[in-house]
Amino acid sequence: MRRRSPAQRALIAAGAVLLALFWFGPFVLVGIGSVIPEGNLLSFPPRWFANPPFLGNYRYIFTGEIPQTYLERGALRSMISQEVRLVPRAMLNSVLIATAVMFSSLTLGSLAAYAYARLRFPGRAATFNFILVSRLIPTVALAIPYYAIVLRLGLLNTHWALIAIYTVLTLPFSILVLTLYFRTIPAEIDEAAQVEGASSLQVLRHITLPLSLPSLVGTGLFTFMLAYSEFLFGLLISTSASTRTLPVTLGTLSTNPDVAWGLMMASIVVGSVPTLILVIPVWRFMVRGLMSGAVH
Amino acid sequence: MGDTTAPRGEAQALAVEQRWSYRWRVARSGALMTLPALLVIALFTIYPFWYALNESLHLSSPILGRRFVGLDNFRNVITSPYFLDAARTTLIFAAIAVPVLVVLGVLVALLLNERFPGNTLLRAGMLLPWAIPASVVGVIWKWVFLDSWGALNAGLYSLGLIDNYISWLTTPWLARFAVIVAFTWSQLPLVAILLLAALQAIPDELYEAAAIDGASAVSRFWAVTLPGIRPMLVIVTLYEILMALNVFDITYAMTGGGPGTATSLLTYYIWAETFKMLNFGNGAALAVVIALLALAFIAAIVRALPKEALLGEHA
């Protein structure tokens, strides 16, 4: 290790502190905001810490029990947004859709990835490039046609439409990552099985997939997160309360001038839980993949 | 002699035939295995693009029905002051946000490449902004910047730094600044981690050699670090340009394109034109324009990538 001068050490310390503030600051503020009674939040000058932490916002989201502080200040009662009560339902919708997308994207993705990694066939390079490039088209350019297609198929306000669209949006990623991973498995293992008379499909199922478990888990969780986070198509296609996804519910809530911000922030905390649980395995997989890819 | 060559010829012919039938089987399974994914992607890429192109050449109205109008929609949107305004806003946004992201990304990657207590915590912390849905990123930063009782105003006031609250989200340039901050927050993790990966791939010997030659830290950066991460810098820059052209969720949740049209990026403008104004023809024409713009960038990315970097040598 090189020795550092005091100036260098100060620079590193200052950078680390600034970065920590930038990364974590907004989350801390949201957490604080979710436990401050509405009256204190809106007051000028600010009185954030005048009262002990208040959990009424969280209780309202799950039970519908209107927080005491809102009743006291009768005028603010209308600011309680009924839509906040839809957050748990929206989370369920998002989790269902994202789980289905994960499985369909992995199934179609691993089939194609095996072919791109191992088999020679006409159009291999051209179709691979087409798949990758297809994802670079701005989604907003696809929004109108997708809306029209879904409308014509009568799938507006269904989970099926979003599952299909998110599968298309995540497939290029799954195919790319799985192709790169499958190629790291020694081809001799495949060949040994082929000599025994196994078909490509059997090799994929009994040899390649079991050997690629870490990569499959990582890719699957990543597609889950992409599907869980998507906003534009969710906004266009699921407009009814029973099918609306979490990002759409939270994103449109914030444009409602009547929303109570304490509730808004409690919703963000609640809605972020699934992503935060998943993010650690995803990140480990991605960082490891990127680092080894760069070294190689 | 003839006795020995004839069977060998037959064996060869048999071997050739076997190889051909093997190749045929491989090609068939390759095509069959890629078909489902290709069909789904093609259906949702080629058909929509054709649909948008077709729609952009027609005018649909509830009264007059649908009729062919040629390039009228394109003329309408390209000459519209709103379009020019949105295009200008998008260019300004990308021209500020992307360089800021890349410079900060290099700095953060350099920092995280050093050993210091808390490094692991910071690397883990990166995943938080990256993992949050972009619409929620917009909501979080809206709370920070909110004019009347946002966290930043309350904080600055409590510290005695300001006497009156600043109208962050209702002053055009401040609102643009706020959107850029939110975008940077959500994109910086990926940029920094990609650049960190590139940094760690630079061989230590290069630094040692530079140190022996008596190069200062700054000149080591210019002579060794920067050339080492240049390919990744190019990729990251182009990728972030695409991301900047794609921003929709953040502005939707944070500013709704406002104040006025100060933060109406092209994406937001297309969405508003189509689904608020219900002008599908113009919306489709805009979609075609932005898709062509993106294709130009895609071509640049493909050129920047080393040939066959992804598919391997035997393509």
TrEMBL record, chain A:
Which SUPFAM superfamilies does this entry report, sorted A to Z?
MetI-like (SSF161098)
Q: Where does the ABC transmembrane type-1 domain start and stop, copy by copy?
A: 91-282
Subcellular location(s) of the protein: Cell membrane
Q: What cellular-component terms does GO give this entry? A: plasma membrane
- Which residue ranges does UniProt annotate as crossing the membrane? 12-36, 95-116, 128-148, 160-182, 259-283
Tell me which InterPro entries the record gives. Answer: BP-dep_ABC_trans_perm, MetI-like, MetI-like_sf
Return the protein name: Carbohydrate ABC transporter permease
What species does this protein belong to? Thermalbibacter longus
Phylogenetic placement of the source organism: Bacteria, Pseudomonadati, Thermomicrobiota, Thermomicrobia, Thermomicrobiales
UniProtKB/TrEMBL annotation, chain B:
Q: Which residues form the ABC transmembrane type-1 domain?
A: 87-301
InterPro entries reported for this sequence: MetI-like (IPR000515), MetI-like_sf (IPR035906)
* Record key words, sorted: Cell membrane, Membrane, Transmembrane, Transmembrane helix, Transport
Task: Tell me yes or no: is RNA-binding among this UniProt entry's keywords.
Answer: no
CDD domains, alphabetically?
Answer: TM_PBP2
Membrane topology reported for the UniProt record:
Multi-pass membrane protein
Cellular location(s): Cell membrane
Segment forming the signal sequence:
none
Keyword Ribosomal protein assigned: no
What PROSITE patterns does the entry give?
ABC_TM1
Q: Name one GO cellular component term.
A: plasma membrane
TM ranges are 29-50, 91-112, 124-144, 177-201, 221-239, 251-271, 283-305
One GO BP annotation here? Answer: transmembrane transport
* Protein family (similarity comment): Belongs to the binding-protein-dependent transport system permease family.
Q: What is this protein called?
A: Sugar ABC transporter permease
This chain's source organism reads: Thermalbibacter longus
